[in-house]
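Researcher: I'd like a candidate sequence for this fold, 104 residues long. If you have to choose between options at a position, lean toward the conservative one.
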């Protein structure tokens, strides 16, 4: 029998095991589970599951258009071109040198 995976929490419904706590006996195929059944982990709807033997569904158009954030991390192309920071002996540290301003 085919297993099904929750898109929200990655719980896997295995028909051989069923969901005894949710009232689904072992041996129940996913298609025979009532539409009112919810994921035992996160409460997702039955429609939030996809067949594991099949490839995961593609992202919706809305998900594909969502802006991607780099969370303040410079792209690798910029990191490779960055120049190393100037180092000063501890005795020469000043507030200006810590901010990247020359001390002379």
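Model: Candidate sequence:
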């Amino acid at each position: 029998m085919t297993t099904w995976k929750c898109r929200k929490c990655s719980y896997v419904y295995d028909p051989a095991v069923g969901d005894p706590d949710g009232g689904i006996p072992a041996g129940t195929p996913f298609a025979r589970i009532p539409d009112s059944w919810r994921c035992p982990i996160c409460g997702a709807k039955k429609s939030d599951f996809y067949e594991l033997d099949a490839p995961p569904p593609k992202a919706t158009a809305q998900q594909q258009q969502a802006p991607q954030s780099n969370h303040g991390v410079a792209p690798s192309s910029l990191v490779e071109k960055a120049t190393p920071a100037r180092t000063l002996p501890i005795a020469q540290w000043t507030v200006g040198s810590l901010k990247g301003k020359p001390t002379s």
